[in-house]
Amino acid sequence: MQQFTEKEAEDFLEKNELKVVQRTFSKNKSDLKKIKIPFPWVMKISSKKIMHKARMHGVKTNINTIEEAEKYFEIISKIENFEESIIQKQISGKEIILGIKKTPEFGHVLMFGKGGTNIEQEKDVTFRVIPIKEEDIKSMIKDTKISKELTEKETRNIIEAINKIQKLIKNNSQITELDINPLMINDKEYMVVDARIVMK
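User: That's the sequence. What structure does it adopt?
Assistant: Structure tokens below.
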């Protein structure tokens, strides 16, 4: 069983034609001044031993200056099992979760729903066995409450992302788990901003 770090997962998704947020990685506070990503930033802790960054207070949004970034780097670098920091361009939009789970009964099952840190409380998710066609994807989206908040362009962007994931799974059937949370959606695009992959 191989569990990818966020860095490995995002690089893998990008190589497989999914749109992934502009990002870089830093092990040292002094490196932050060299980063060319425009503000605002999101900064996150990265570690193979930390699965839930938010629960560890390992995620900070709306960083607008190098001074703020350096201050937060000092905080997360003291968290147990810290390996490096992830610095991403902050994307505006709605938070979606897309997931894949390989099951003995049905093979790969797709999850779609409202993403973010409160998915367990929201419980606004639905499931389909893949592969599925576009009409079924639209039906899946309509099964959720968040569908009422989506524009037509946002829905199209979600469909594009799901089709890319279906292609990814077809070419990499050894993937047993894939979680993208959140996938940021707006009228312009979709963007993967956090991902986890497990392969057998």
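The domain at 94-199 is CATH 3.30.470.20 (D-amino Acid Aminotransferase; Chain A, domain 1).
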